Amino acid sequence: MVFDPLTIVMIVILAALVFFMFRNSRKRRREQDETRSKMVPGAEVMTNFGLYGTLLSVDEDDNTALIETSPGHVVKVHRQVLARVVEPKVAEPAAATEGDVAAAPGVELNEDHAIAADADATTPEYGERVDEAKKRKSDD
């Protein structure tokens, strides 16, 4: 039995597709296991629909989880909607100092880094925003 080159190429492509399919499924399973291991009570979590809260408990039998969104408010969700554990962000040092504040061309800043009252307005919306800011500041 003689194999033509087209048949050999098709078998190689099929083998590559099967290889990558198994590799991706293993990788996805490993990531899910890692995420599940981080889902312990007290962890900050985010759901698939963007709800953030503190994980209170996970019930394996009912496939439910209790999340406290704010003090005294507990939400019961399906366990599969827990998308990820929110890691605390480390604050990066500020690159600019207070004296490095720069204004757009044609805009003057006073010592509080606010738009100066005599700043040159080039658009009507800009002037309206300055007037609103002045009004709010005078109300305070």
Largest sheet: 5 strands, antiparallel
What is the annotated CATH architecture of the largest domain?
A: Roll
**Ends apart, CA distance between termini:** 92 Å
Calculate Rg over CA atoms. 29 Å
CATH topology call of the largest domain:
SH3 type barrels
Shape: elongated
β-strand amount: 15-25%
Task: Give the overall average pLDDT.
Answer: 78
SSE pattern = HEEEEEH
Number of DSSP helices?
2
Tell me what the structure shows.
By secondary structure, the chain is of the alpha+beta class. The chain folds into three domains: 1-32; 40-89, SH3 type barrels; 98-139, no CATH class. Helix content is 36%, strand content 21%. The protein contains two helices and five strands. It has a five-stranded antiparallel sheet with strand order 4-3-2-1-5, with no helix packed on it. A hairpin with a 4-residue loop joins strand 1 and strand 2 (52-59). The longest helix is centred in the N-terminal third of the chain and has 34 residues, at 5-38. The radius of gyration is 29 Å and the shape is elongated.
